[in-house]
Amino acid sequence: MMPSSFSVFRAGISFVMMCIFYTSAVDSPELSPQTFFSTLQPGKATLVYFCQAESPRTSMFLEELNEAAKPLQDYGISVAKVNCVTEETSRYCGSEKDLIKAYLFSALLFNEVKYITTLGDLQNIENALKGKRNIAFSYVRAIGTPEHRAVMEAAFVYGTTYQFVLTTEIAVLESIGPEDIEYPHLYFFYCKQVLDLTQPCRRILMKQSLTTLNIHRFIKTMEAPLLTEVAGDPTQVSTVHLQLGLPLVFIVGQQATYEVDRTTAEWVAWRLLGKAGVLLLLRDSLEVDIPHDTNVIIRRAEEDTQVEFLALSHIDLIVFHLESTMNVEEMVKYEDMAELNIEIQDDEVEETVYRDRKRQLPLELTLELTEETFHATVTASDSIVLFYAGWQAVSMAFLQSYIDVAIKLKGTSTMLLARVNCADWSHVCTEQNVTEFPVVKMYKEGQNPVSYTGMLGTEDLLKFIQLNRISCPVNIMSVQEAEEYLNGELYKDLISYSSMSVLGLFSPTMTRAKEEFTEAGSYLKGYVTTGIYSEEDVLRLSSKYTVTLPALLLARHKEGKIESIPLVNVHVHDIVQIITNASLETFPEITVENLPTYLRLQKPLLILFSDGGIDLQHEKTILRLARKKYLDSVTPCWLNLKKTPVGRGVLQAYFGTLPPLPLLVVVNLHSGGHVFAFPSDQAVTKQNLLLWLKKLEAGLESPIKVLPAQEWKPPLPAYDFLSMMDAAASEHLARKVPECIKETDMHESDKEQPDDKSAITEESIGTSKMKHSSRSSWLEEIKKPLRHDNQEL
């Protein structure tokens, strides 16, 4: 593990990376620990990695690090390696388990910033600095967070004056005070004035969030005098606190009670340290009249604010009055900033994840897998595994849905729910062919992993898991069992997840047709229940349902109907398409989740907008027309504005204002983007609806809106970081080439080593092409815009 503290020479920088890997192709020099520490010099930057054992998951990182060694040298940063196998005495070499827990612990240390892991470390530093220096102690959740960066920037500025101490261990923070440990903290320890080593340093907590500006303001107030005596007009007095936007609190006293008043003022000053400036104002020295009963004056930093004259009998009342008004102001400011953030977020998923960042998920309901535990776990039990990246917004959003599924299945499922953070275990994800995030895969003994391809939501994933409890297709062994299957009695507990059951009927000799249906059923596993019956008495079922073999029987449990479809000259893809289309509802309620499914049909949408439940007469009319195939040219559906409020915005985009409901609309998204509204003065009857649809087909109706064809892109452009890096590298190399090199010298150099240059040129060109190809393909995946023909529904 990382030692309790690590000091670097002032004005020097050191990156320490503890890794568990080994490779023979290391270009950087290998040092002993003694040599490493002896080579650290002021102003020098060193990147050191400590290797312990071979681990293939870090080979890619090591490769890139070795490639970066040369460019880093150009910037004055040297790269070295310490082999922990041969140099076990290094204090950075620990057990593999400890190092894995450290997750590639790296710290950027300016001006002797000390990293600690225990309360004992903090107490040792505190005792060593009593009577010498004050301490700025901070807790951040992880290295590299914005709060960590703010602390390091402050350390760069104030590190010569104060000792900065940093920890990411929440146990250290818990042992200091009772404050809420959910957030990053910064304490200021007054140790310089403590001369008695048995006395603790006074600790002041910074209440504001850890930003560069807030830390600067806080430290400035720590540097300011604790208490100032003034004799002027309170409205004219100015201190550093006002300049920093903090209020001033005047304790009004008099010469006769000077000692008592000063003691009171000092107590108030300690209580309000970092929040306000405290001044002692003697009434005897004032030319300005102050109300006789006033003993406290408060002056705000904001202009045009009235000075408050108060009569408060206790120190707690002074502190409470000031803090309560400050908290209200901070809440208003925070709410204002929250509203601004809504406007500038360039990705709705990231915005949602950011807003839910404080939500505590019961991650213990899922098993976290590592490189060491993955294979043993998925081979020992049937498992569902989520592969995600902790830095990606979509992954973190879906992680919430995944945990919700775990909550619903708690105590009822034999399926183990697990997760792998690909940011930590990239080698595992690469082995499992995970190339994008998030991905869910199901592992069952003796079967290939099955990938989940449905919507990234709780209900769809839950349906996938539950329907995978049975084989697909199920082998039906008798006519009676087939009837129970079609009636929903065989798998009653699955009807809520699959409203339709599919039964394939085949004679025993139809081997090829059975194989294709079995393959189609395997493809649909987790999305619909399928069964197969091919016994000698299969003709009894085909006769009952008046269908020739081979055939499909579609049992719609909600409607209580069984539909038969003959399979003539169809293949796997055709069977999948037939079942997929048949599983769609005849007149579905459109939601955000199922809209993409119905858009794939490439038909105009006939939408009935309703402010609540659907009108029964309208539903009956449209269902009757749909079942008689009158509406095959459109996709009939309805939308409940109360359940799907986004529908109001859609209607306002179509009509400008919200029209009276219910309302029937045809939206042709796939051809022209035309929107047509059913006449509001007509009743929704069979005759009126058919006549109106015929007019639309004949082009006799004018659209109320034509949706513009455009791409769906992020509101703000994305940064092409690779291009920016390439441009910076090219510019740097251009500066390094001497301008005075003569063309003749270059030709002479060419002639001296023709073979070597040719070899180097070919090799570098090949390498350059491979890198460029890799980068280009990666960038193309990122740049692919989510295209859509229209802006609205």
UniProtKB/TrEMBL annotation:
Which SUPFAM superfamilies does its entry note? Answer: Thioredoxin-like
Highest taxon of the lineage: Eukaryota
Q: Basic and acidic residues bias: where? A: 744-760, 778-793
Q: Which residues form the TXNDC16 second thioredoxin-like domain?
A: 107-225
Tell me which positions the record assigns to the signal sequence.
1-25
Q: Which parts of the sequence belong to the TXNDC16 third thioredoxin-like domain?
A: 226-316
Task: From the UniProt entry, list the residue stretches annotated as the region Disordered.
Answer: 744-793
Where does the Thioredoxin domain start and stop, copy by copy? 367-466
What are the record keywords, sorted? Signal
- The protein's name is Thioredoxin domain containing 16
Native organism: Bos indicus x Bos taurus (Hybrid cattle)
